From TrEMBL:
PROSITE patterns: IMP_1, IMP_2. Mg(2+) binds at E69, D86, L88, D89, D214. InterPro entries: IMPase, Inositol_monoP_metal-BS, Inositol_monophosphatase-like, Inositol_monophosphatase_CS, Inositol_monophosphatase_SuhB. It comes from Roseovarius bejariae. It comes from the Bacteria. Its cofactor is Mg(2+). Its EC number is 3.1.3.25. It catalyses: a myo-inositol phosphate + H2O = myo-inositol + phosphate. Keywords: Hydrolase, Magnesium, Metal-binding. Pfam families: Inositol_P. GO terms for biological process: inositol metabolic process; phosphatidylinositol phosphate biosynthetic process; signal transduction. This is Inositol-1-monophosphatase.
Amino acid sequence: MPGSANLNIMMKAARKAGRSLVKDFREVENLQVSMKGAGDFVSRADLAAEAILKEELRGARPTYGWLAEEGGEEAGEDPTRRWIVDPLDGTTNFLHGLPHWAVSIALEHKGKIVAGVIYDAAKDELFFAEKGEGAWMNESRLRVSGRGRMIESIFATGVPFGGRSDLPATLQDLARIMPECAGVRRWGSAALDMAYVAAGRYDGFWERRLNAWDMAAGIIIVREAGGLIEPLTEGGDILEDGEVICSNEAIFDKFAKVIRG
């Protein structure tokens, strides 16, 4: 499954940043006695990973624009192409020594995501997709689940923390969805939630108040795995609104009806 030059650049960058993060992750448990110390350490790990990604991606494609969690947005000489990067999605998991976090890289062309890579370095699972070429995890082709009944399906979401204003809406979502399904998971990484939908591990995912870098790579990976993905608000824009809902085609309408109320 040879990918384009751009996809290969993305995969190489994700693996390199992932190796750096795995090395730092091994040190996290030694820092748990000091919350501030651990937090500062993880911030440095995050910034170091972003620096690696920037060196690899912009070094290979210096004319492309750049949007990343830590480094913000930079225009490129080529206004049609942009890297959208999250060097560490699942920072709180990383901080607590939980091996569920990922490097996420997407390539946007003329406002559309055309390639995406999500690398779970702790488990060495590399999810990737390119427009028209299908979705993959390492050497295996990905397909969304084939479940057609809500009551047999499990879903993923994020539960707002720290008293965020969208907590009531999420609690209302949960009150509607939980009686209709086989369970809801909250694992703390939107990028991996979307990758897991693509892999058929979850049957669907929804979340509010996300950033573009949380979702961009997952959008194309879900689509190329045969899933449906839409803005949570019909007629909206996923990346601009920061809201998303996705699942396999068989349950999408039922799932979306429940979540959208």
